[in-house]
Design brief:
Layout lengths: L20 E7 L3 H14 L3 E7 L2 E13 L4 E4 L2 E4 L1 E2 L2 H14 L5 E7 L6 E4 L12 E7 L2 E7 L5 E6 L3 E6 L2 H4 E5 L9 E7 L5
Parallel strand pairs: 3-6
Antiparallel strand pairs: 1-12, 2-3, 3-7, 4-5, 7-14, 8-13, 9-12, 9-14, 10-11, 10-13
Bound molecules: 2-oxoglutaric acid and fe (ii) ion.
């Protein structure tokens, strides 16, 4: 049976000038709902300091992370391996929200908690071998508004966007191949931000 696809196609314009697609869809829930999601994620997620190996050194980041998925997938990045926890009802609700807003499907979610503007994330691509190449990544933000930046690997051209409370951004297609992204640290923000990136892991 055919049905009309309402809200199922990303409507934000592509922010990238070439070799990738990034869409900022803005708020996908009301401020009141966003406040509730922020508080319950803060309270109920199994937040842990991230362990990483950078230039051969073991470090513990101030930023906290958590990793949830359909199955206990192992996931390696920054040369450390984590095992996914099972979805909480709230994460499943957010996954469905992002799926209906994007028309994509996801089987995992990486969460980041930045306590204030001094915490950020350095330039990188989400191009781990466990991820389905080119699949949509849906990035939900709650709490403090923060700047998010892209830099083309060859031309070094940069593009930035502000990510608001309850907002959704997508990265698709060639974005991870040709562009880096980062969350720059800032002295202007003194409150926390929670980010959820919904992803599609390879299951083969
Ligand atoms: O905090 C963000 O908005 C981005 C996080 C990110 O790039 C990642 O988890 O790979
Ligand atoms: Fe990323």
């Amino acid at each position: 049976m055919q049905h009309t696809m309402l809200f199922e196609t990303p409507c934000g314009d592509n922010l990238l000038p070439y070799e990738g697609t990034v869409r900022y869809l803005g708020a996908v829930c009301s401020t009141v709902e966003a406040d509730q999601f922020y508080q319950s994620l803060m309270d109920a997620i199994a937040w842990q300091h991230d362990q990483a190996v950078i230039y051969g050194k073991h470090i513990t980041t101030k930023r906290k992370v958590a990793w949830y998925a359909d199955r206990p997938f192992p996931y390696t990045y920054s040369r450390t391996t984590k095992t996914a926890l099972p979805w909480t009802p709230e994460l499943l609700a957010l996954k469905q929200l992002v799926e209906s807003a994007t028309g994509a499907t996801f089987n995992s979610c990486l969460l980041n908690l930045y306590h204030d503007g001094e915490e950020g994330m350095a330039w990188h691509s989400d191009a781990e071998k466990e991820l389905v190449e080119g699949a949509v990544i849906g990035s939900l933000s709650f709490g403090a508004e923060r700047k998010f930046s892209f830099k083309h690997k060859a031309s070094k051209e940069t593009v930035s966007v502000m990510l608001g409370h309850g907002s959704l951004l997508t990265m698709e297609g060639l974005t991870q191949t040709h562009w880096l992204h980062r969350l720059p640290p800032t002295k202007k923000v003194h409150t926390p931000r929670i980010n959820l990136t919904f992803r599609l892991m390879r299951t083969d």
